[in-house]
Structures are given as structure tokens and as C-alpha cells.
Amino acid sequence: MRFKDQVAVITGTSSGNGRAIALALAAQGARVVCSDLVRQARTEGYETDIDVDTDELIRRAGQQSIFVKADAANSADMQNLVQQAVEHFGRLDIMVNNAGIFTTLQTIVEETEEDYDLTMNVNAKGVWLGCKYAITQMLKQAPRADGCRGRIINVSSIGGLVGLALEPAYCASKGAVNNLTRQLAVDFAAHKININAICPGFLETAMVRPALDNPELKAHLDSLTPWPRIGTAQDVAKAVAFLASDDAQWMTGSLLTVDGAFTAQ
């Protein structure tokens, strides 16, 4: 198992990408600390076993997992999240900053300051806090046999690479995540802490289900992506697992697109 005896903390695990990432890392041996504002999955999601909490699914599969309630944009919550991982499992090997939000499609004229502040707080500040407390812990603990002190994966978006129509605050927040990822990679490469980001394209998740349930919008999204299907949370989870593994040992500061060639156009 790729992650045997390693400890992973993942934010936003109740549904969507976070749930898929947690299950994927646990299936490969990781002890997983699940975290979200609420433990229960969003019922409008695409997941199987939607009525079973993510941490419970992991335990049913014979792996170790706990749930810690945390607001990704709250400093005390994020510090406690990392502390709980260390108290329960002894260390922190993998941090996945996945929690994120999207408000609504609108131009900057209609977008309110409240929309902007909320989006930036969760999507940008939340990643900043997750990195801050994860790196603080990783610097304290003994490195693994290969010298690696830990791996951090930030879940960003193609919206951090290109301008998506009607998404000003969202694109700004994900652009911040991308450049923060690069900056931190430079600062902590000498300490052998790998810090990378995933930039997913359009996905089948609860966050975008209202659009996908609209036949016209669904057809439009399908037409935007060269690959002949919309992405899934499992596509993201596989990419995160790669970046969390020894196969990505010399990758840091990278922005890995998982978008069916959307940004290659």
C-alpha cells in the first residue's frame, strides 16, 4: 500500500472531491482525518453510499479514520485540526486543502462584497491556514526514511489559470491558491516538504449539480471540454494520490491540471 502508516488530513471531506480523496488515500493505507463544517454528505451529490459519513465508510473498509469539525477559514479550527491528527495518530504526512465554495454566476457589477469576502476567506485564506499549520507541524517532526517531511496538495481550479466567465471572486481566490502554492514550494523545498496544487476542470459534484441538471447548461459544459465527458471526483482523487506518493518525490510548486484538455485549447 502506497500510504501505509502515513497520516493524511483532508478538508471538505463530507462530499465531492474531499470525500473521494479521503476514500482513495484510505484505500491505499493512509490513516485519515476527515474534516468539514458538517459530517453528513450533501444529498444532491453523486456519491454512492451517500447516507454513510466518509469517516464511517473508511472504518467499515478496515482503515483508521476520525472526523474533526472545522471551518477552513477559522485559524483556531485549523490549528486544532492538525493538533487532533497528531494527538490521534502521532504525526502528519499528507495535508490536502480541499475545502472550497462557489457562490453564483455573476459579473463583478452584481457580485457583492459579501460574496467576495466569503469566497476569498474559504478558498484562499482557508488554504493559507491549512498550509501554515501543516508546515509548522511537518518542520517539528522527524522526516521519513527518504528524508521527506510531508506533502501538501492544494485543490485549486482551472479558474486559477484562466478567466472563467461570470466568476470574478472565484477566479481571484483560485489564482491566489496557485501562486501561494508556488511561493511555499520555494521556501520549503530545502526542508523536503512537497507543495503542489491540483487544478480540476468541470466535474460532476454537488457544487455544480444545479448546472448539470439543466440540459442546456450541461450541453454547454460538455462542449467546452475536448475530452468526451465531464470529470468526476475520482479523477481528482487519483491525481491527489499521485502527488501524495513517492512517485512525485521531485515535484513541488507544480499546478497539475485535471481538466480533459480544457486549458490546453
UniProtKB/TrEMBL annotation:
One of its GO terms (molecular function) is oxidoreductase activity, acting on the CH-OH group of donors, NAD or NADP as acceptor. It comes from the Bacteria. PROSITE patterns: ADH_SHORT (PS00061). Belongs to the short-chain dehydrogenases/reductases (SDR) family. This is Short-chain dehydrogenase. It comes from Pseudomonas laurylsulfativorans.
